[in-house]
Every structure is written in structure tokens, then in C-alpha cells.
């Protein structure tokens, strides 16, 4: 079984592979920084935290610390683009350290 390292490799395989002879492949999602926001009226509202990992492992860390009391998950790249957009009215307050957060799951 081969390991697909990037989405482009996966696309190339799907587009160029003979579909009558499918190969079994495993997609290895790269780890990266993920930004999680807290909504207005929630504990930590207006703030955000970051976790490093895959989409699912970062989300699991967030749930471990905060349960389901948070709003959205963004890649660091999506987050930077969104925050830099001058048309956006809402701007996040600050990144908050885990030890300073409220509503941690015990």
C-alpha cells in the first residue's frame, strides 16, 4: 500500500489511474496549526486558541479541553487571510493560553 503525502498526489492518482484496476492507497494528512474560535456569549468569547495536528487530532484536542463550547475551526492560512481582510467588521481579540481559559473539561 502506498502513502499519499499531498492532495495533489491524490488528485493525480485519481485522474490518471486506470479505474478498472484501483490501487489501495492511504492519504496521510499533513499536520499544521489550527485556530479555534469562541463565540460571543460563550466563555472565552471573542478569543481564540491554536492546536497543532491534523484536522481531526487538533479537533480532538479542542474537545478534550473545551468540550463542544466553541465556534469554528480554521487552518492557520484561512485564519490569517480572514483576519487580514479589511472588509471584515469583526476582528478577534487575542489568542488565549490554555491555562488562562475558562470552561475547561475536567
What does this 3D model show about the protein?
The protein is 29% helix and 20% strand. 11% of the residues are buried. The strands form two sheets. It has a three-stranded antiparallel sheet. Strands 1-2 form a two-stranded parallel sheet. It is elongated, with a radius of gyration of 18 Å. Strand 1, helix 1 (7-16) and strand 2 (25-27) form a beta-alpha-beta unit. The chain is of the alpha+beta class and 106 residues long. The chain has two domains: 1-28, no CATH class; 31-106, no CATH class. The model has no long low-confidence stretch (mean pLDDT 79).
- The beta-strand count equals 5
The main sheet comes to:
3 strands, antiparallel
Tell me the strand percentage band. 15-25%
User: Which shape, going by the Cα principal axes?
Assistant: elongated
Radius of gyration: 18 Å
Arithmetic mean pLDDT: 79
Number of domains: 2
Helix content: 25-40%
Uncertain segments of ≥5 residues (pLDDT<50)? none
The class by helix and strand makeup works out as alpha+beta
Q: Counting H and I runs of at least 4 residues, what is the number of helices? A: 3
Which strand order do you get reading across the main beta sheet? 4-3-5
Distance between the termini: 40 Å
Give the ordered list of helices and strands.
Answer: EHEEEHEH
Amino acid at each position: 500500500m502506498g502513502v499519499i503525502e499531498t492532495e495533489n498526489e491524490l488528485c493525480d492518482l485519481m485522474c490518471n489511474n486506470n479505474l478498472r484496476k484501483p490501487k489501495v492507497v492511504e492519504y496521510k494528512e499533513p499536520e499544521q496549526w489550527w485556530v479555534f474560535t469562541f463565540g460571543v456569549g460563550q466563555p472565552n468569547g471573542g478569543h481564540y486558541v491554536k492546536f497543532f495536528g491534523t484536522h481531526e487530532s487538533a479537533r480532538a484536542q479542542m474537545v478534550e479541553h473545551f468540550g463542544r463550547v466553541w465556534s469554528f475551526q480554521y487552518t492557520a492560512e484561512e485564519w490569517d487571510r480572514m483576519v487580514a481582510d479589511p472588509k471584515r467588521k469583526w476582528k478577534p481579540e487575542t489568542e488565549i493560553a490554555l491555562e488562562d481559559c475558562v470552561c475547561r473539561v475536567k
